[in-house]
Write a structure and sequence with these properties.
Length: 151
């Protein structure tokens, strides 16, 4: 009887010790962005809203957007501004819904084809669902004509 009590006691100590080891808090994994920003690209000094608009006009024209969009009215909001919230939008929450996370290093430019992120190194991407739909439509039309678009 003493032997089985000793085995039972030893088993209980192992179970309690193992449970206590697993109950330790796990250190959080540091957040890493999915795509790091391009290395070595510094913002040009004095890059303004007019520069963001001119860059987006060129990119939209090159993608195949019509002049009504590419050269239509645009509002530019500097990185850090609440442009995604204060831009007029369509009034339809499904179309005005942002795509992905806010881009803190990009300008937000609102056009007749939705909101766009514009980076000072000459790239742009749709910022809301309307811009994404418009961009896909223009690309489909270009493929149907046999033309290619630049991203």
């Amino acid at each position: 009887m003493r032997r089985s009590f000793a085995v039972l006691t030893a088993s209980a100590v192992l179970v309690v010790g193992a449970t206590a080891t697993f109950a330790q808090p796990v250190a959080p994994i540091p957040f890493q962005p999915a795509v790091p920003p391009p290395a070595g690209i510094a913002s040009p000094p004095g890059w303004r809203g007019d520069d963001a608009i001119a860059t987006l006009e060129r990119l939209l024209r090159d993608r195949g957007f019509g002049e009504d969009v590419a050269f239509g009215p645009m509002d530019a909001f500097a990185p850090g501004d609440d442009g995604t919230r204060v831009a007029v939008g369509t009034g339809d929450v499904r179309l005005d819904a942002p795509i992905g996370a806010r881009q803190p290093e990009a300008w937000f430019v609102y056009t007749g084809a939705g909101g766009w992120w514009v980076w000072d190194y000459g790239a742009a991407a749709p910022a809301d669902r309307l811009a994404e739909i418009q961009d896909q439509m223009v690309q489909r039309q270009a493929r149907a004509r046999g033309a290619t678009t630049t991203d």
